[in-house]
Amino acid sequence: MTEAKIGQPFLRNEDQRLLTGQGRYTDDIPVPGAAHAVILRAPHAPAAIESIDVSPATALPGVIAVLTGADWQADNMNPMIHNAVPTGDGALGMTAADWSKVYLGLHYPLAAGEVRYVGDAVAMVIAETQSQARDAAEQVIVDYRALPSVTDTAEATDPSSPVVWDKAGANVCLDTVMGDVAATDAAFATAAHVVKRRYHIPRNSGVPLENRTVIGSWDEATGTYTVFGGAGGVVRHRNELAKMFKVDNDKVRVAVWDAGGNFGTRNRVYPEAPMVMWAARRLGRAVRHTTDRTETFLTDFQGRDLVTTLELALDNEGHFLAMRADNISNIGAYTISFTPLSKGSELITGPYAIPCATVRARGVFTNTVPTNPYRSAGRPEVIYALERIVDSAAAELGIDRLELRRRNLITLDLMPFANPLGLNYDSGDYPTCLDRALAMADCDGFAARRAESEARGLRRGLGIACYVESSLGAPLERSDITVAPEERVDVVVGTQSTGQGHETSFAQVAAECLGVPFESVRIRQGDTDFVLAGGGSHSGRSMRMAGNVIMMAADLVIERGRKLAGHVLEAATGDIDFADGRFTIRGTDRAIGLFELARAIEDRDDLPEELSGPLAEGTENVMHRPAFPYGTHICEVEIDPETGHVALERYTTVDDVGRVINPIIVDGQIHGGIAQGAGQALFEDYLWDPETGQPLAASLMDYTLPRADTMPSFNTATHIEPCTENPLGVRSGGEAGTTPAPGCITNGVVDALRDYGVDDVRMPTTPLRVWRAIQQGGSV
After folding, report:
1. For residue 453, which of 265, 296, 417, 458 is within the disulfide window of CB 3.0 to 4.6 Å?
2. Strand runs (DSSP E) across 291-427, as ranges?
3. What is the pLDDT of residues 618-653, one digit of tens each?
4. Residue 86: what pLDDT?
């Protein structure tokens, strides 16, 4: 048995199962008699649907049904429920009345009348086998009338661009201003220097290992739907699906066991879930659907795609006086979420003590896949722009960029710090993280390494990014803990693991709180049959929310145990102490262990009514205040000027994620986050043909991902200033690597090219763009 202790580097409980093929993914679930669905998807963006002829498909062997958007609306079904408006008062500086005026559009699972992006679902073909359904889908005849498209974020703001939603009248569906405009204007009027830049943070696809899979069934006797599949949180999915089907929550069961990746893009309900539920009810049998990889590229909700114009006002000594930003977020064809725009806009001043700022925030419709929060939603975009403009300001003013950061970072004595957009940073030592990262990265030796690279005909650059990000998410979380007589502790939580190591780190928290062996704790999640409440996993909320509510539930179990131990040991509750998994009568050696107590009460019938039943308790917790992970990342890149090839040679990080529950898991999260951010900086860009709206990166042949051989060994460390906003002291570690990496790496690329007169290279910094920058100078 392993002694439980928070902070120990336990190997992950789940890895043995997952790495030996024992995982339970949705496609592994056998459902006898299930039919197979294939979705016919639109080849145009956009197009009017003039007619659909399903008769050639329905005549084929094995075909059970072909359903269209007209069938959905004939059955009086609701559109998708996306809850696009950010939670919390004053999001984006808007009131409830302001939000009521924002046009969101209607997203039906099957399009009726018009398709708005390539991949929009048009018909669902259901057959006995998947191959029969695929063959039949090719026989559905759809008469499309192609319409003009708009895919570019900035162009969508032009009143002359094609309008995605006629009812909206324009593509700008949201336009708001945050911050103190008067104070910001006054600061810019008196500034000695103003630096202005425009950046585009390109579109990304999450590319999880597991393609989307969903199974729907219907129980006529009970009037209950069951859905297997999803990734973001079963309670949320159940509630939204129940609204769509106009039934009570207890009439929908959603279950997800293992999920092969998410990164936020799969947190929302996808159209296939209600489609298979609906089909199952109509047909009286289960229906399953699995996307292929091309479908995931065409239809997975995507991330990023922000155009921001940033202005920074400085005095003669390089102190930041004010900031302006104009942020345009591409929300795609349907409104899934404004959260990336909201979270990024609140954080544009980052870790710097900037007195005042204003942000104009706009959301625009385009004929593209909808966007959704994607790992660290909104924060990598604005931190990228912020750290790029800080480097540019240093170059323009002739101030060392490290010194410029030191002069403006929020210092420990200013904590807690209210940033000018309404966020209150609770704690943090930003300068110490900077200094530690510089030392770990051996920045003093960089000049020698640069000279060595130049001797080989290469150019070497040093990149740096200081960052802060916010971790909030759904405010409600629940945990139910049961101590079983067979020496097992079952812990139910409402989060949803998609590879983060919950089965290990949550078990560490519970084991330490209850004083039981680590191996005795079993984490249960992902099924509304026993998960009563919870917010799923997003916005770095999992450990911060679940860890704290597990502690609370454990305290209730201990208090219940003290009362039960008093009965079993025949002592007053006030005389019972608890430590190291045992209840002891104070001042004596009479004691009973937690599991022994669970066995002792199993068959007793003399307990008070309020103590009857198992040794179990549950509770909910609500957190409305965010936590703020922060740190400094430093990298070195090496560029071949003849080809433009960029090699990421060194990468060093010092991150403060608050109290570290499991160092191995935190380190793994940071490694994965860096790779994801490096993909954004160096490789990934989801593109459309500007004339037709056709996607140009709909397979892994066209969309480049970082690989192990393109990443260096990461040199990582944590600086721990516990968060003051929750008892566990956790900030969040899941997004710390992603947020600063794009800015850090791009700063390194530009630094390597300064001698060529290059001030900016647009992400991703592909060899072609780097080569053109070398040839042309300036910005590309």
Report:
1. 458
2. 303-314, 320-332, 356-365, 417-418, 424-425
3. 999 999 999 999 999 999 999 999 999 999 999 999
4. 80
